[in-house]
């Protein structure tokens, strides 16, 4: 599970999903926090093969201009 803090912009969820897909990972679950100003937290539960694979996906997410912060989580937030 990861939490991605992003700038609230149109199309940013699509950019995140595309980067995850391009990284050969699958989104198992997703949750978006309520709109709280300019930033939003998006929680993803991903299928990855190992830690190296997760690191690769996280690096590709960091290349998206709207991404502010990425955190790995021990549990998915429901």
Describe this structure in words.
With 78 residues, the chain is of the alpha+beta class. It is 29% helix and 36% strand. It contains two helices and four strands. A four-stranded antiparallel β-sheet has the order 2-3-1-4, covered by helices on one side. The N and C termini lie close together (11 Å). The model has no long low-confidence stretch (mean pLDDT 93).
Largest sheet properties: 4 strands, antiparallel
Low-pLDDT segments = none
Number of helices: 2
Helix/strand/pairing category = alpha+beta
| Rg, Å, rounded | 11 Å
Mean residue pLDDT: 93
Strand arrangement across the biggest beta sheet: 2-3-1-4
Q: Count the strands?
A: 4
Topology:
Layout: E1 2-7, H1 12-22, E2 26-32, E3 39-47, H2 51-62, E4 67-72
Antiparallel strand pairs: 1-3, 1-4, 2-3
Helix pairs in contact: 1-2
Features of the shown structure:
globular; 78 residues; four-stranded antiparallel beta sheet; 2 helices; alpha+beta
Summarize the structure.
Helices cover 29% and strands 36% of the residues.
